[in-house]
Design a protein that fits this description.
Elements: H1 16-27, H2 32-36, E1 42-45, E2 62-74, E3 81-88, E4 91-97, H3 101-107, E5 113-118, E6 120-123, E7 126-130, E8 133-136, E9 148-151, H4 156-160, H5 165-176, H6 189-195, H7 200-208, H8 213-243
Helix pairs in contact: 7-8
Length: 244
């Protein structure tokens, strides 16, 4: 591979020194290479939108488009929370934040169209979503980034600093726009042709931004095969050295 992937992660747009230090301590991500090889643990279909009347508390995740029609800060100190009434033409639900209350209250706007995404729950007969992902209409991150949205493991410390799976996903998409033509192939061409393997650059893009399940399956095969192939080569090398 070229030196491009060996750049310090702090030089990626959206990171900077503070986030770079956190990513290093919490996830051992120090370079572009570390980030692009930090693979998702799951994918969620973001093509499906629900009406609020369709949402039930036992659903895994939901995506809804609507408007915030009211907000209220409840409690004080560490027990403070922000509750927002989110509505569409079919009904309303609650959005709740226990962290970042001040920031959310200052930045969320009433009667503005938002898309929210999260795990629904129920309290006192009212459907709610705690700490939803929320984006205003027209936000660039709402533009298609593959059919499935990748989700990444993070830590409580990172979450408290607002480095969530969503933020890692955005950083990944930023990096993916910069790698075209900069990822050298590592597998022998004859082997790639024999096994009909996906090129490394395409596999790395696809694993983070899959367009369909077929490509995702091929990307996983390519990356898993390479990892095992290199391990086997290392074993053969150690065996050869012992025999010598």
């Amino acid at each position: 591979m070229t030196d491009f992937l060996d750049q310090d992660i702090k030089f990626l747009q959206g990171v900077g020194p503070v986030r770079a230090e956190l990513l290093k301590k919490e996830l051992n991500i120090e370079t572009f290479r570390d980030l692009i090889y930090y693979f998702p643990y799951k994918y969620v279909d973001r093509t499906k939108y629900y009406k609020i009347a369709e949402v039930q508390a036992n659903m895994p995740h939901i995506q809804v488009k609507g408007k915030i029609v009211g907000m209220e800060v409840v409690g004080s100190g560490p027990k403070q929370r922000l509750t927002a009434r989110f509505a569409d033409e079919t009904g309303s639900m609650e959005l709740i934040w226990f962290q970042g209350v001040k920031w959310q209250k200052e930045n969320l706007k009433l009667n503005t169209t938002y898309t929210i995404f999260g795990k629904p729950g129920e309290f006192n007969g009212t459907i709610n979503v705690v700490h939803p992902e929320i984006e205003s209409e027209g936000d660039i991150s709402l533009q298609p980034a593959g059919i499935f949205q990748a989700h990444y493991n993070t830590t409580e410390k990172l979450k408290k600093k607002f480095i969530t799976s969503k933020i890692i996903h955005r950083l990944m998409l930023t990096l993916l726009t910069k790698i075209e033509g900069k990822i050298d192939e590592t597998m022998p061409q004859v082997l790639m042709e024999k096994l009909k393997m996906m090129p490394l650059e395409k596999a790395l893009v696809t694993i983070h931004k899959p367009d369909n399940t077929h490509d995702l399956r091929n990307a996983r095969f390519r990356l898993k095969f390479e990892e095992l192939f290199l391990i086997q080569l290392k074993i053969f090398s150690l065996k050869h050295n012992r025999e010598q």
